[in-house]
Amino acid sequence: MKSGGALLGGLRFGFGRRVPVVLQSEAAECGLACLAMVAGYHGYETDLGEMRRRFTASLKGMHLSRLMQVAAELRLDARAVRLELDELARLRLPCILHWDMNHFVVLTDVDRNGATIIDPAHGRLTLPLSEVSEAFTGVALELVPAANFEPAARKPSVSLRALAGSVEGLRSALLRVFALALVLEVLGILGPFYMQWVLDEVLVINDHSLLTLLGLGFLAVTLFTAAFSVLRSWVILYVNATLGVQWATNAFAHLMKLPLDFFERRHIGDVVSRYGAIQNIRQTITTELVSAVLDGIMASALLIVMSIYSLELTAVAIGILLLYLLLRWVAYEPLRAATERHIYAGATQQSHLLEAIRGVQALKRFNADSARTARFGNLLVETTNQQIREQQLSILFGAAQHLLLSAGHVAVIWLAALQVMHGGFTIGMLVAYAAYASQFIGRGDGLINAWISFRMLRLYGERLADIALAAPEKNVESTYLGPDPAPHLLAKNLAYRYGADEPWVLEDVSFELAPGESLAVVGLSGCGKSTLVKLLLGLLTAERGELLMGEVDVRQLGLRRYRALVGSVMQADTLFAGTLADNIALANPEASLDDIVAASRAAAVHDEIAALPMGYQSLVGDMGSVLSGGQQQRVLLARALLAKPRVLVLDEATSHLDSLRERQVNDNLRALGITRVVIAHRWESIVQCDRIMRLSDGRLKEVSRQVLEGNLLHQPDAELV
Ligand SMILES: Nc1ncnc2c1ncn2[C@@H]1O[C@H](COP(=O)(O)OP(=O)(O)OP(=O)(O)O)[C@@H](O)[C@H]1O
């Protein structure tokens, strides 16, 4: 039973409330964005950043059932309905429609001719029913506030300090810029007096010596002005550079501290574009912040000076500025929406570009390059269209602004001239007043523009917040004071899934591995072996269960210390741009060449590196394209061995090697006596391990070698999984 308040809250009078537009930034977030819009309509104002932090969506997106769960957490009663197109009008609006089989949109209005929807990927659209019919799958989600629904005002936007981290020397540098600029402004305010004196004092009585004095005096003022203005630009340059470097480094350092699943849930282009938001924020701060403060002070000072001349005329100038403020206020929302769509389209295009570069080989092999180019063209047109729309709006409002301000200026001079005719002003006062009024309107214009820019900054701030406010990896530092634990691994009931609405990939994984022992984990493709490896390396955190090394919980040992003890080679490991030596010495850049050679020998790759013309100084591309697949794997193994790990975790680390090399590598590893966990499909690698376990249905079970060998004989294709 609903409370009366909640029922009344559901009434719609057709005015007042409007569904806010929340644009998604990734394909998988359409469901979250739709919920944010409906919740916003009912009074729970939120944004995508907050939604993402509260309800993680995996890259695969959300099912309807998960949407209903999230709706329940937002205290909205959700009801999924199946209906025909002509029944849309019976839905309680706004509601969510399942769209094109893989998307969600919000339906805000529907009548006989068409429907208005908000597509989180494109914004508000009005479509004829024929188009709705093509995309609508027949499933809708009605949402009404539950009895315990609580409206919430949007949280104040994140502070710049939280976004930027601490920036040294910013305050003092800004103060310096401010002081210099203030001097300049005061000098600037003297200019109109010069005109007034020349007109009223010099010309009237033909006073040559006064003219000379005034001329020299104001020439000196001009010189000072030039010098201060150079100094101010210099300091701004310094602030810009300092802020830029510190800020970008802070954000990068924070990005590197984020847990792996932050990256696994996002597209690389999106992360890059969000990181790029720093540029826009910095630009606004350094160019607009100081001038906004100055404009405010100067506008007030000018207002006082102008009031001394004439109160009525000053009221007119204020009126003009207020009209201008109204114009900007009306223009704000369309401009903000256009800017947001522009940013979103740009990020999508960037993702596409990065993905195409990374996958260029596959695109060529499948003759998909022209289709990819066409899609890129479409995205580019979309971005450009949004940019054109943004600029068209700017041009229109710019013209209106120019018209208003110029007309205002004419009016002020007109009225001041009337004052001269009535004897209230001298000619000099008219000229000086006109100059002050023009400065005042200019300052007011600057102040209003800065206010708009700062409001727009929120858009970029919210994008950056996704990185800056994401929680860094936990348990990185050690709280265990004892010596390094023995390489004895104990996993107890580990469980993991990639999202709250995803199935458990690992349900109950337990095993124990004594020092020096080696364990092969086999299982069907997709059963969760790589996921288990990521848990063992502390890259993912188990939802349940614990992992101990030498009886010390890994959380207590700290991930940094644990990772220094555990070496690994992963399926999709990459080399970095640089020399082979740099790559092998990744964990220990100070390592001697002897250490590097020893690790390479153990990984059976030394001879091939030594045979290269530049040996260990050979450069590899950032995708390692100089080396063959098998060579890359062995270089990666050398990199893991260089740090002298106590435990080695290998996820299909020798899959590209021929059997001879594989045996050689395995023999070397065995001789080193390192505790090993090996994920492999090939018999060669499995058979050399002391124990074999099979992962299936989220559980790990010991398999006897004989059974596996028997399987091999009878079903050569099935045994290795
Ligand atoms: N980032 C992710 N988000 C959501 N699901 C994921 C993610 N990564 C993997 N999965 C899912 O988890 C399951 C296990 O994946 P995993 O990569 O661990 O399998 P695997 O046993 O290593 O497979 P293979 O032998 O083919 O490498 C798969 O069903 C996969 O769809």
Write out the distinct hetero groups bound to the structure.
adenosine-5'-triphosphate
Total domains: 3
Structural class: alpha+beta
- The residue-averaged pLDDT reads 84
Strand content: 5-15%
Task: Provide structural commentary.
57% of the residues lie in helices and 14% in strands. A 6-stranded antiparallel sheet has the order 1-6-2-3-4-5. Strand 7 (489-497) and strand 8 (504-513) form a beta hairpin. The chain is an alpha+beta fold and 721 residues long. It has 3 domains: 29-145, Cathepsin B, Chain A; 160-469, ABC transporter transmembrane region fold (Up-down Bundle); 489-714, Rossmann fold. Helix 7 (170-205) packs antiparallel against helix 8 and helix 11 runs antiparallel to helix 13. It binds adenosine-5'-triphosphate (ATP). Adenosine-5'-triphosphate binds at residues 58-60, 264, 498, 502, 505, 523, 525-531.
Which SSEs are present, and which pair or pack?
Elements lengths: L3 H6 L20 H12 L6 H7 L9 H10 L2 E7 L12 E5 L3 E8 L3 E6 L3 E6 H7 E10 L14 H5 L5 H36 L2 H50 L2 H5 L3 H42 L1 H48 L1 H6 L3 H53 L5 H42 L20 E9 L6 E10 L4 E5 L6 H8 L7 E6 L2 E2 H4 L1 H7 E4 L8 E2 H5 L8 H10 L3 H6 L7 E2 L8 H14 L4 E5 L7 H14 L2 E5 L3 H5 L3 E6 L2 E5 L1 H10 L7
Parallel strand pairs: 9-16, 9-17, 12-15, 15-16
Antiparallel strand pairs: 1-6, 2-3, 2-6, 3-4, 4-5, 7-8, 7-10, 10-11, 13-14, 17-18
Helix pairs in contact: 2-4, 7-8, 7-10, 7-14, 8-10, 10-11, 10-14, 11-13, 11-14, 13-14, 19-21
This protein binds adenosine-5'-triphosphate.
